[in-house]
Amino acid sequence: MIPVFEPVIGEEEVAAVTAALRRGEISGSFGESIPRFEEAFATYCGCKYGIAVSSGTAALHLAIAALELKPGEEILVSASTNIATALAAYHNNLVPVPVDSEALSWNLNLDLIEDLITSRTRAIIPVHLFGHPVDMDRLCAIARKHNLLVIEDCAESHGATCRDRMTGSFGDMGCFSFYANKVITTGEGGMIVTNDSKLAEKLKLLRNLAFTTPRFRHEMAGYNFRMTGYQAAMGLVQCGKIEKVIEEKIRVAKTYDRFLEKVEGLQLPISSTIGRHVYWMYAIVVQPGLGTSRDELQNQLREAGIQTRTFFCPMNLQPCLQEQPGRRQVECPIAESLWKAGFYLPSSPKLTEQTIQRIAETIYRIAEASHAKLTA
Questions:
Q1: pTM of the predicted model as reported, rounded to 2 decimal places
Q2: Which of 44, 110, 277, 307 is most enclosed, with most CB atoms within 10 A?
Q3: Residue 281 burial by CB count (10 A; 0-12/13-18/19+): exposed, middle or buried?
Q4: Average pLDDT, stretch 341-362?
Q5: In this structure, what CATH number is given to the domain that contains residue 317?
Q6: 339: phi > 0 → left, psi -120 to 50 → alpha, else beta; which?
């Protein structure tokens, strides 16, 4: 089976983790690896401060918690995203309001934002979906106009740029994931980046149970969202590889483009006109002209030994969010269509041209067979 993703992990990561363990960097409360990783990754993103945490979901949760918004207030979120984005608002007693997707980039549609803003709206979380950058200059202008805070969800966009600035550096905070399938990984883990010194100190306090002096008397209700030292040691090595990984992911995407452009009925990912798309995953959308459904195509690819994954169920359709007090019913027809017809192909940076060609030719054969049946 050709997997959807395989992380790039070498002997350097093994050596770094082993060395950190020998230094006793077991927990996330001490050691040299965490601050070094925070500094290196924040610098890469063009930010002053990095706050390492236990996951990308924890990063989003902590970023929202640091804003101290009132229960029932609203946060606009991309409709097409991993549910972690909306859950970060939900678990902070805030109401996530989905913004439907654009038809081509699949990011949130900036034209829809202002019509969704109410007196309860306090922030917006754009997601750079599959590594395609949102137009953050335009989004931040809308946010400033309406006095909204901005938290960038960069779980899939390490190294993506908008007009030569890294994603994560535009908003009040940027949140990254280092899960196993991300551009770089620490296994589990995440990071918040910011240029706000007060926010950075608050985030560091909150991630560690808000310990102050005396140690076991707590002025704030904090969280245990610490990253371990040996994860950070691995992250440091991965940070040094990030540009090479991105180079390979772009190679994979352009190779897919070349082999799949002859297949009628597939919407391929568009390149960014405002910056660098890092193609976290190579995602495609099945259109009627293919002659078969998304689900049938996935089934046949699986039978051929090729693993795939669907797009995300949009936030307006998530069952666990349906009964939330204050929830607003927002129609998201584009995000819903992506959920029904979109999926992504194996996207490991290790993929060879021969393997990508095999995947593309399998899709082509399935499409040709479907057309033959329809015309028989």
A1: 0.97
A2: 277
A3: buried
A4: 98
A5: 3.90.1150.10
A6: alpha
